[in-house]
Every structure is written in C-alpha cells, then in structure tokens.
Design goal:
The complex is a heterodimer of chains A (587) and B (582). Helices cover 63% and strands 11% of the residues of chain A. With 587 residues, chain A is an alpha/beta fold. Chain A has a six-stranded mixed beta sheet with strand order 6-9-10-3-11-12, with helices on both faces. The longest helix of chain A is centred in the middle third of the chain and has 54 residues, at 232-285. In chain A, 50% of the residues are buried. Chain B is an alpha/beta fold and 582 residues long. Chain B has two domains: 2-322, ABC transporter type 1, transmembrane domain (ABC transporter transmembrane region fold, Up-down Bundle), CATH 1.20.1560.10; 341-580, P-loop containing nucleotide triphosphate hydrolases (Rossmann fold). Chain B is 65% helix and 10% strand. In chain B, helix 17 links the parallel strand 7 (496-500) and strand 8. In chain B, helix 9 packs antiparallel against helix 10 (281-322). Chain B is elongated. Residues 1-13 and 578-582 of chain B have low confidence and may be disordered. The chains are: A alpha/beta (587), B alpha/beta (582). Chains A and B meet through helix 3, helix 4, helix 5, helix 6 and helix 7 of A and helix 2, helix 3, helix 4, helix 5 and helix 7 of B.
C-alpha cells in the first residue's frame, strides 16, 4: 500500500471543494456546538453594536447638540456608555469563546493525527520522514487554528457588517445599490477563480516547510557522522537547499495571498465612482437628492471596507484549507493490517507455521518466496544466513509488523491475522535488531508496554526481576533502575541498550521470544549470562534466535538457513556452518 | 518586586531586539513603509475627490471627465501601492526568515558534538520552524500595521490638538491606560508564550520518538501509552494556549472599550463645549471624524499585540542559540598524519559517572590494535575521543606527537575514518552516502565499495549506486548498513581507521573477506578495532583489555592468554565454538 504522503498528495488531484472541506473540519469540533452558538451570537451582537455606535453619535449630534439640549446629550452619552459596556462583555465573550474553540480544535486535531500515526502500520513509517510528520502535527494544525481563533471572527464580523450595509444600500435605492455592488460580483467571480491557485501555492509552501523540517530532523539525528567526516558544510548545504526552496515557495504563496488586496481596493474605488457618476446622473434626471447621495456614499464605504478586510482573511482561509488538506490526507489513511474473523479454534502443537509465504516490500524486490516451515512449541530455533537474506523480514512477519504478500502464517494454529494486537503482543516478545529506548529512566523502559508489571511497587518489581534472574544485569547501570535514559543521547552504549531491550522482553514472559541479533554488541561473557536467563524461562517458551555469531545458536534444537528468498532446514549444526561458510552469499 | 522589574526590562529589551531583525533590510523596509503610507495617503484623497465632485456639481461646474480621471488615477495609485506593498512585505518577511534560518543553521553546524548532545535536538527543530514562523508573521503582518497605525495615531492626535487642545488631552488620556494594560498583559503573556514553545519542543520529541520506535511500539502494542504521553503534553499545550486566550480576550476588549470611552467623552465634553458656545459645531464634527480615524489603528495595535508577544518569545529563543559562544576554533596543524597514536592520562566522565579513568597507551603507525572489554566499559567513548568528537576532561590524545585538537579539522577528519557502532544512513543515493566527503574520488569510492564487499549488492540494485536510500535506512538490512558505514570511512583513504564493533552484524564469511580486503587494499592503515570477538584479532599487534574505564591488560593474544585472568575468561567464553570459526 502506498503510504507516502508526499506522493499521494501529488497523485490525488481529488481536492474537496472549500465548503465540503470546511464541513469535514467542523465535524472535528462537533462537541463544541453549544460554544459555537454562543460565540456566533456574540459575534453578531458585537457587529450590530459596532454598526449602531456611530449612528447613535450622529443622531445625538443632529438631535441634541445642534439644538443645544445638553441634558439629551448626557442621556445619550449614558446610553452609549451602557452600550459600550455591553460591547465590552460581548467582545470578551466572543474572543474567549472563539479562542477557546480554536485551542481545543488544535488539541483535538493534534490528538487525532498522533493517534492516527499510532494506528498506522510500520510500512507508513518506512515511507515517510519524521520531520515531515512533525511539521504536519505542529505547523499545519497551527495554521488551521490561526484561521479559526483569529481570522474567522473578523471574517464573520465583516460579513455581517457588509450584509447590513448591502441591504441598506438596496433599500435606499435599488438600481443605484445594484450598480454600487456590481464590482463585488466581479470580485466574487475573480476570487472563486483565483482561490484554487492560492490554495495550491499555499500547499506547495507548506510542503516545502515539511521538507525543510525533514531535512533538519535528519541532519540533527545524524550529526555525529556530519562532524566525524567534517561535513558541516554538507549540513549547511543540504539545509541551504531546503531553505532556498522553502523561501521560493513561501514567496510565491505570500504573493498569491497578497494578490487579492489590491484588487479588492480597486473594486471598492470603482464602486464608489459608479455611485458618484450614476448618482449625479440620477440627480440630473431628478430621481435622487444630493443629501441621499452623500449618505449613500458613506454606506458604500461600510460595504467596501469590510470587503477589503476580507481579502486578507480569505487568503488566511486558503492557507488553512491547504493545511487541512495535508492533515486530512494523513487522517484518511487506513491501517491495511486488518483483523480477520477467527476461524475455528484449533489446538496445535506448533507455535508458528508458515504456509507458502511470499513477501515483497512495497516498491522493492521479493524477499521471501513460497516459504513453508513449522516451529514447535517449547523448542529453540536458530535462523542463520548472510546479511540481506531475509532473516529480519521473517521475524517481522511473525510479529505481524507486515502481512505476507501471499500465503498464510499461523500462530498457535490460528491465522495470525485473526489475533487482536493486544493478544498477539502478549504472546510474542520480539527483540529488535536496533534497540529502542525512550527518554526516561531504565525503569520506565523496562516496564514499557508491560501492563502486568507497571502497577508493581518497587519491592514487587525487585522480586519480579529477581525471579527472572535479571537483577544481576541491572548492576551494569550506575544508578540501577533510576539511571536516566535519553533516546538520542550517547551516555549509554549500544550494548547497554541491548541489555535493556533484552530485559524488557524477558520481563513480559512471552510464549514466543524472537531475538534478532539482539545481543550482537554485548560481550561474550555477559552473553553467557543472558543464555542462563533464557533457560530460566518456562519450558513451554518457544525461542527464535537470529544470529551469525555461532556460539549463540549452538544450543538450538533446529537451525534454518535463510537466503535468497528461501528458508531451508539445515539439519545439523555443522551443516549450518557449512552452508554459512560456503553457501551462496546474496542473490 | 526588584526582580520582576528587571525581568520586565529584559522583556522590553527583547521586543526592541525583535525590531532589530529588520536592521539589515533597512532599504526594503523604508520602501515598504513608503508604500504603506503612500497607499493610505492616496486613500485619504478619495473622500476629497467625492466631496469636490459633489461641491462642483452643486456649483454647476461639474466635469465628468475630470472626476473620472481624478478618481481612476487615485484608484490606480492605491492599486499600485497596495500591490507593491504586498510584494515587498512578502519578500522582506521571507528574506528575514531565510537569512535568520541560515544563520541559525550555520551556528548549529559549527557547534561541537557534545553541544548538540547537551541541547535538545527537538528544540532546534522548533527554532528553525515554528519560532521562525512567528518572527516571519511579525515582519509580514504586525510590523507594517504598527508603523502605519502609529503614523495615523500621531497624525490624528496633532489634528485633534489643533482643533481643541482641552478636548484632545481628554481623549489622549486613553493612551496611558492602553499602554498600562499592554504592559501588564505583555509581562504575563511573554512567560506563557515561552513555556508553550517549550511544550512544542517536547511534543516534537515525543512524535519523533514514536516514529523512531514505531516498530517496537507495534510489537509491544503500546500505542496506548504513547498516546497518553502525547496527550499529557498536548493538554499542557492546550492549557497554555487557553491562558494566552484568556489574557488577550481581556486585553483587546479593554482597548476597544477605552477607545469607545473616548467617543463618549467627546460626545459629553465636546457637546458641553458646543452647548456652552466655546466650540463650533463644524469643529465638533471634524473632531469626531478624526477621533474615528484614531480608534481603528489603536484597535489594530491591539490585534497585533498577540503576534508581537509570540514573536518576542520566539525571537528570544532564537537569540539564545545565536548568542551561544562559538566553539573552540579549529587547530592549524595540517601535516599529514602517519598514524602514531598516544593517549596520556586521559579521563572522561558523564556527569558524575566516570567513563574512562586515567587511560594511557600508544599505538605505532601501520599496526593493528584491538580493544575488547565488557559492555559499558567505555570502549565507544574511547573511540569518540580518538576521533576528536569529544574532548577528554583531562589528559591528551596525540597523533604523531601533536594533540588531536591542534590539527585543522578538515585535515584531521579527512585522515581518520570512523565506523560507528550503529548505522547512520542519509536519505540520499548510495553514492552520496558512501562518498560523503568531497575529497572522495571515483577510484577511492570503487576501492572502498570493493573492500566492504558491497559490489555484488550494489550490482543487484536496479539503479546501482544511484539508488536512493530511505530515511533511517529502513530499506536496508543491518549488515548492509554496517558495510555502507565501513565503505564511507574507507572512501576517505584514511591513515587511521577506527572500527566500533564493526563486525557485529556482518556474517563470519563476509567479515573474513573484508578484513582480508582491508589488509590488501590499505596496507599502511593504522587500524583500531573495538570488538567482542577474539578470533579475528588474534594476530593483531596489540590487544587492549578495557574494563570499567580502566585498562586491565595490554599485549598480544599469546601473552594475554597466559597472563590475564580476565582475558582468559572472555577467551574461554568464546572457545566452545572456536573450532568452527576460521
């Protein structure tokens, strides 16, 4: 399955129209309906009050200041003050509500993206870059939030003012009103025409930001090599390239975003000109008075000023839509490792059974070809073979990190695809080739993904470790369980990382334990200790050991030789050696 | 009180610093301001043209052509001004961001490895993306708006003062109120913005870890705890965001209310003046219209305050990285390295934990040395020291009698090949991954590929050397990655080769071939290999046994086999399978 976000977005031209996109986005904050209603009422009220203010002032001047009735002036000043107090509260409510909705939407969006990431299979992570994903979770969601918490309010406020002014214009004089608003119609058509282009430009700019982020992430993660090979210039050059590209795309997007404003200004001026010319002509014809023309012209600016403001807001809207497109593409991915209904429960003495399994990585060559083998419960198996032969792939299939392209894999006699992830994880312990630790302490890492042990008190945990014969290994860490761990830091050696991974897997007491060269960087003396720990596991435990260090596999009950897409039983230990030493290396 | 005052001072200093980002772009910025002011200036002409048109119509000397010409030229003027303003604004903002990113990346790239380790790489990512974005927003949106707002405010204030200074002073009384509320909110919000950026740092870290650990998470089915970790930080981020919203949703209504209060004041006080006859109605009306001119920019500044506060916090974070003292200058010795290595009383510790204790040994050029020892003995750190990636707390690392740090970096790193224990693969072609230094020639590249036994593998790829490797090398097997790392180091034609547990993921047969190839193709190489296996290094000139940061024994295999009990223990742990190996 194609999980590549950047390729998918290029291929999929199926962009949703703006409104449909917006509806999908709004569905994320459907829980906020109540707040949205309040916020929108506040926006309406606020827009109304701000229209009413100047009118009241004008009225007071005409009615009381001109007639020198100071008492009336004071009364109206009082009313105005009261009105502004209300506006103050409404304004507060509006900002608080919309800001809150924006923040909570940002929160839900980030959560849904992160949870989607957790939901997707390993394949997805092989096809996408860490920095780009981070950019989608942090930068793109922020663009959507900015529109929601800031622009949308002004947008609606402007829309309301504009509509009010428009209606007034039509009431005062229908033909003149229509003529005055005709440039707005042209603007509307223009805006509709230009919007997809603006959105594309913004999308390209966000994409280049994602690339920049990916570039930074990769270079920082690999900084050691950059320094050891004296390639600081390499970091700068790669960065410069991505930075330059981002600059180009952002300038293009920025210009597209600023393109609307001058046209809106121009249209509003043309509108005023039309009114002036047509109004004077009407006056000559005797349809209209000068007084009316003056007030008409003042309303025209109430119509066009908010429209001008909307030009900038519209660009923000296009940016938010572009960001949302990137997010929704990610959200639209589905995990292709579906759970199939369980077939009849069969009791089987075999732990793992491969039946005619073939496997091909997406956009890669076939790694396994029609492989069949059977692993009995409670026995120890070794998989040996040259690098790149398919050992890790076989182990990954057993742990269902991927699904077989063809054929079926059975776990305890049942199709492995019929297990829930939870059931499967509790049965299988897989120590990966590259040890993975999370920032935290040794304790956090030992208990990671182990619901059975995470509730244990310090003493109980100590006993559990003692029972599993693991406490001796803890001495390798200067502060024992409390030794701090940094995922990216190098204060801890690869061998130590492998020790923690090993202990983590043992502590979970799996039925099937897979070690994928899991002890390659651990010294041989300690390795003997690990063997004792493994022997201490219940006799029903099935062990699969992938290694090329021969001493680690000599205790295996059966040895399989993995190479060139085939897995063949090696019969005896010496036959395995023979195959390994003289067999064909790589296809 | 005193400390908060000091903090506030630092805050204003930072805001001022924010404006300084525009310094190098003075020309463009001035042009931008001219465009903005020009646009609003011409905009003021429009009402004049309209009223002039109406007046002349009333007077009976109305010229349609004149009005239309005037009007259209004003409209065209506005169009051109706003158009150019938009373009200039974009260019200025993007150039500020691009150049600052370059400076930041440049700064980071010059730092030492230990600095990068100490600082959080997730923070650099935020610095270069989100932080930069808010500075950009300040330049593109807030800056011009504030300048033109201030311009309009001062212009309108002068006009107000000229019409009626008593009334004007009453109106301008709102300025200190607004300034005070700004000051109070800013002081609080700056801290929150800073914190919220730090939460973004940890969100970045969590996402990154969940991506690096994606395979493990799926094996353990631990998506739930990952989501919980993320949720916890996301909740914090949301709450900080809500506190910011809370502060601004007080500040902006206050500004608006105070501005509206001015309107009421005018109405009451000005009305009083008119009624009392000390002010004409015309002046009162003019006063009123100028006041409305004044209020809009005041509100604009209110809206922009959010952007300024966020940009100030971000710029402070960026400055922190930029102001970091530059790392020690590279040395100047550029003579070729022969390969005599000497360590004199070298000690190293991480925090309070000693990693290496007073290590001394010497290696002669062209010889082969192995370092063996248990996990966490400090072997890798020793290699990092030798590669000058980290510096010892005390003691010297010398090459040909010259301290490592005295060599020019370029010259040094080109002669020392380092094969890391874990694989570091870049998302680019195999060719670029292996020929990672510009000095690599086609010939040395081919020799390295051949030596690392990669030819067959590369031949099997449809695009050979130009095959693009995925990020983190997910498309390659462990052994392939490790051999690419070796080829990368060999392609330099190094004088000294440091191998960190290189053979751990390569099968025995390939390992033998590779060691043999190195012997044949690079006969003069000084080799230093950290390893777990004794068999391949039996014939080495020197074996150093390292335990808990101390050298336990040094010598050839046949000597150590007799004299060192620890060595014998390691050796015997491997003996059971010895007869199969070789």
């Amino acid at each position: 399955m194609n999980y590549n976000l950047n390729q998918a977005s290029a291929k999929e031209a199926r962009k949703l129209p703006a409104l449909a996109s917006l509806r999908k986005l709004v569905s994320i904050i459907s829980g906020e309906r109540h707040n949205i209603v309040i916020a929108f009422s506040a926006i309406f009220l606020n827009a109304g009050l701000s229209l009413l203010g100047p009118y009241m002032v004008g009225y007071t001047i005409d009615k009381y200041v001109q007639t020198k009735n100071y008492h009336g002036v004071l009364i109206f000043a009082g009313i105005l003050l009261a009105m502004y107090l209300v506006a103050f509260i409404v304004n507060y409510a509006q900002m608080r509500m919309m800001g809150g909705i924006g923040q909570r939407m940002l929160f839900s969006l980030r959560n849904s993206i992160f949870n989607k990431l957790q939901d997707l299979p390993l394949d997805f992570f092989n096809q996408n870059k860490a920095g780009d994903l981070i950019s989608r979770i942090n930068n793109d969601t922020d663009k959507v939030n900015q529109f929601f918490s800031q622009s949308l309010m002004q947008f609606i406020g402007s829309l309301i003012t504009m509509t009010g002014a428009g209606i007034l214009l039509l009431i005062i004089n229908l033909p003149l009103g229509l003529a005055a608003m005709s440039p707005a119609l042209i603007l509307w058509i223009f805006t509709r025409g230009i919007s997809p282009w603006v959105r594309r430009r913004n999308e390209a700019s966000l994409k280049s930001l994602g690339n920049l982020s990916a570039e930074i992430q990769e270079s920082l993660a690999n900084f050691r090599v950059v320094i050891a090979f004296n390639r600081r210039d390499y970091f700068r050059r790669r960065f410069e390239e991505a930075n330059g590209e981002n600059y180009k795309r952002s300038v293009q997007a920025g210009i597209a975003n600023n393109m609307l404003s001058p046209f809106y200004s121009f249209a509003s001026n043309v509108g005023q000109l039309i009114v002036l010319a047509l109004g004077i002509w009407f006056i000559i014809k005797g349809y209209f008075s000068i007084g009316l023309l003056i007030s008409f012209i003042s309303y025209i600016s109430s119509f066009y000023n908010p429209l001008r403001q909307m030009a900038a807001l519209w660009a923000n809207f296009q940016l938010a839509l572009a960001a949302w497109d990137r997010i929704s593409l990610l959200l639209s991915f589905e995990n292709n490792l579906k759970i199939i209904p369980a077939s009849n429960e069969v009791s089987s003495s075999s732990c793992i059974n491969f039946a005619n399994v073939s496997f091909t990585y997406p956009n890669g060559k076939e790694v396994l070809h029609k492989v069949s083998f059977n692993l009995q419960k409670g026995r120890t198996y070794a998989f040996v073979g040259p690098t790149g032969g398919g050992k890790t792939t076989t182990a990954s299939l057993i742990a269902r990190l991927y699904d077989a392209t063809k054929g079926t894999i059975f776990l305890n006699g049942r199709d492995i695809r019929s297990y829930t992830p939870c059931e499967r994880a509790s049965k299988i312990g897989f120590i990966l080739q590259e040890p993975i630790l999370f920032s935290g302490t040794v304790r956090d890492n030992l208990l990671y993904g182990n619901p059975d042990c995470s509730g244990l008190t310090g003493d109980q945990l100590g006993k559990a470790l003692e029972d599993a014969k693991l406490s001796g290994l803890l001495k390798r860490f200067d502060k024992g369980l409390d030794t701090p761990i940094q995922m990216t830091g190098d204060g801890i050696s690869l061998g130590q990382k492998q020790l923690i991974s090993f202990m983590r897997a043992i502590l979970r007491k799996p039925e099937l334990l897979i070690l994928d060269e899991a002890t390659a960087n651990i010294d041989t003396v300690t390795e003997h200790q690990l063997e004792e720990i493994m022997e201490n596991l219940p006799s029903s435990t099935t062990r699969v050991i992938i290694a090329h260090r021969l001493n680690t596999i000599e205790n295996a009950d059966e040895i399989f030789f993995v190479n060139s897409g085939k897995i063949i039983p090696a019969g005896s230990f010496s036959e395995a050696i023979n195959l390994l030493m003289h067999g064909k290396v790589e296809s | 009180m005193g400390s908060s005052g000091k903090k506030a001072k630092a805050g204003t200093g930072q805001s001022a610093g924010l404006f300084s980002v525009l310094g190098p772009y003075r020309g463009t910025v001035i042009l931008l301001i001219i465009m903005a002011l020009g646009g609003s200036g011409v905009n003021l002409l429009i009402p004049k043209i309209i009223s002039h048109g109406i007046d002349s119509f009333s007077a009976g000397n109305f010229s349609v052509r004149l009005v239309i010409t005037e009007f259209l030229s004003a409209a065209a003027g506005i169009f051109i001004f706003t158009f150019l303003q938009g373009i200039l604004q974009t260019f200025t903002a993007e150039r500020v961001a691009r150049d600052m990113r370059t400076r930041l990346a440049d700064k980071i790239s010059r730092q030492s490895y230990s600095y990068i380790l100490r600082s959080n790489p997730a923070k650099f990512l935020t610095n270069l993306t989100s932080d930069m974005d808010s500075v950009k927003m300040f330049v593109s949106q807030a800056f011009v708006n504030i300048i033109s707002s201030l311009f309009v405010i001062s212009g309108a204030s002068i006009l107000l003062l000229r019409i009626n200074w008593k009334l004007a002073l009453a109106v301008l009384g709102i300025v200190p109120i607004i300034a005070t509320s700004f000051y109070i909110v800013f002081r609080k919000v700056r801290v929150i913005f800073r914190k919220s950026r730090e939460v973004i740092d940890s969100l970045n870290r969590i996402i990154n870890e969940s991506i690096l650990g994606s395979a493990l998470i799926r094996v353990l089915n631990s998506q739930q705890p990952e989501s919980m970790k993320f949720l916890e930080n996301n909740v914090e981020s949301r709450d900080l965001g809500l506190s910011i919203v809370r502060l601004f949703s007080v500040l902006i209504p206050i500004i608006m209310f105070v501005a509206n209060l001015a309107v009421v004041t005018i109405l009451a006080l000005g009305g009083h003046f008119v009624v009392a006859g000390s002010m004409t109605l015309g002046n009162f009306a003019a006063f009123n219209s100028y006041l409305i001119m004044l209020i809009f920019p005041v509100m604009m500044i209110g809206f922009m305050s959010n952007i300024i506060a966020s940009a100030t916090a971000s710029y402070g974070r960026i400055r922190q990285v930029l102001d970091e003292p530059p790392p020690v200058e590279s040395g100047t010795v550029s003579s070729p390295i022969r390969g005599d290595i000497q360590l004199k009383n070298v000690s190293l510790s991480y925090g309070e934990k000693p990693v290496l204790k007073n290590i001394s040994f010497s290696i002669n050029a062209g010889t082969k040395t192995a370092i063996i020892g248990p996990t966490a003995a400090g072997k890798s750190q020793l290699l990092y020291l030798l590669a000058n990636l980290i510096v010892p707390d005390s003691g010297d690392v010398e090459y040909d009698g010259v301290a490592a740090e005295e060599y020019s970096r370029e010259v040094f790193h080109r002669q020392i090949g380092f094969v890391f224990q874990d694989s570091v693969i870049f998302n680019m072609s195999l060719r670029d991954n292996i020929a990672f230094n510009d000095a690599v020639t086609e010939g040395s590249l081919m020799k390295a590929i051949e030596t690392a036994e990669l030819s067959e593998f590369i031949e099997s790829l449809p695009e050979k050397l130009d095959t693009i490797v995925s990020e983190r090398g997910t498309s390659l097997s462990g052994g392939q990655k490790q051999r690419i790392m070796l080829a990368r180091a060999l392609a330099l034609n190094p004088k000294v080769l440091l191998l960190d547990d290189f053979t751990s993921r390569v099968d025995r047969k390939t390992e033998n071939k590779i060691l043999c190839n190195i012997q044949n193709n690079y006969p003069d190489l000084t080799l230093l290999s950290v390893t777990q296996k004794i068999a391949p290094v039996k014939h080495f000139d020197q074996i150093i046994l390292l335990m808990e940061g101390e050298i336990i024994a040094t010598g050839r295999h046949k000597d150590l086999k007799e004299s060192s009990p620890e060595y014998i223990q390691i050796y015997s742990s491997q003996r059971s399978t010895q007869h199969y190996e070789l």
